[in-house]
Amino acid sequence: MTSLLNWSAMLRRMKRALLPLLTLSLIASASAQQAKELRLGVFPNVTHAAGLVGVQRGLIQKNLPAGVKLVVKEFANGSQINEAFAAGAIDAAYVGPGPAMNAFMRGVPIQVYAGAANAGAVLVARKDSGVRNVKGLAGKKVAVPTRGSTQDISLRHLLHENGLKATDEGGNVTIVPVDPANMPALFAAKQVDAALVQEPWGAIMETQGARLIANEKAIWAGGNYTTTVLTVNTRYAAANPDSLRGLLRGHLAAIDFIKGSSAGTQKSVAEQIYAFTGKRPNTAELFKALSRTKVTWDINLKTLAEYAQLNREAGFARDVPDLNRFVNLDLIRSLAK
User: Fold this and answer.
1) Which pLDDT tens digit goes with each residue over 298-312?
2) Is residue 185 part of a domain?
3) Based on C-alpha coordinates, what's the Rg of the chain?
């Protein structure tokens, strides 16, 4: 009996001695597993101005933990972003709420941690197309960035409000998926009649002679709707909390810069769009594009819920997401204080 008690006491002493070593080992192991890079997806659009400025001015990299490298990947549309998230090729991305919702409901492990922009998309038409209003789109070809994009869903809603439907809904408006940076060339070649597109590509097409059919406020909800969110892979976020905080701090720093320096913002956005596409919007185009876009980390959850309904009505989802699981603004709110 005495030997058993001695053995039990010895085990307790060994446990107390080994526990600190075990804890240090687990911490070291967790540290070793933390990612050494953050792979971020961005579009060459003014609705992604926070990302473009954050990248071009080094604000995101500056806020990441020491030893974590920012790897920037350029994408043209939300479908490409969803494929990259599903393949594990990116850790975070600026993307429209439509594609993000659809990926989330298909089980892709992502969550929205911040807003990035409201409005910032317009409907334009070739001057020789004969289109002067939304009803004039009957029988026409209209470009959007990709099927199921935020702009595609917005266009279908506009069509329905004006008694029209897309051809895949039994109507006579042909919706054509086109990367935004390629839309000006398609207008020039008369391959499409109109486009619902993010800035600065709408402003660029206006410079080339396109007619503005609906500005950012006429697209939907008076312009008070989210067009871009900052989405992060939830597994990456859980394993790399310091990198997540750094990303959001860099995001906030970029938004502050945009609010404080119009000229600096135009320069940074132009430089990064040029780096991605080889096309540089001019000062007048960027001024117009930025005036149509509200750069903000906040999200209007009411209009986001309404947008989820539009996404379902458009046939891109069978249901609407649980916004309490899809959106988590707790960290960005605490950092923004």
Assistant:
1) 998 998 998 899 888
2) yes
3) 24
Residues with Cβ within 8 Å of 32's Cβ and at least 6 positions away in sequence, in order, are none
| Whether residue 2 has pLDDT greater than 70 | no
- Please tell me the least confidently modeled range out of 5-14, 209-218, 276-285, 302-311: 5-14
How many domains would you assign to the chain?
Answer: 2
Q: What angle do CA 324, 328, 329 make, to 5 degrees?
A: 125
Q: Rounded distance, CA 243 to CA 319, Å? A: 32
Based on the fold, state whether residues 229 and 329 are members of the same structural domain.
yes
On whether residue 291 sits in a domain, the answer given is yes
178, 192 contact by CB (below 8 A): yes
Alpha carbon distance 68, 49 (integer Å)? 23
On whether both 262 and 331 belong to a single domain, the answer is yes
129 and 114 together in one domain = no
User: pTM value?
Assistant: 0.88
CATH number for the domain including 150?
Answer: 3.40.190.10
For residue range 163-216, what is the model confidence (pLDDT) as tens digits?
A: 999 999 999 999 999 999 999 999 999 999 999 999 999 999 999 999 999 999
Domain stops at, among 195, 223, 251? 223
Contact 141, 174 (CB under 8 A): yes
> 201's torsion region: left (phi>0), alpha (psi -120 to 50) or beta?
alpha
**Which residue, 167, 202, 223, sits at the end of a domain?**
223
Q: Show the domain range for 172.
A: 121-223
What is the C-alpha separation between 96 and 220, in angstroms, rounded? Answer: 15
Domain-embedded: residue 14: no
Please report whether residue 26 resides in a domain: no
Question: 15-19, 61-65, 160-164, 228-232 — which is least confidently predicted?
Answer: 15-19
Distance from C-alpha of 249 to C-alpha of 292, rounded to nearest angstrom: 25
The pLDDT of residue 271 is above 50: yes
Closest to 202 (Cα-Cα) out of 120, 117, 79, 291: 120
**Eight-state DSSP code of residue 45:** S
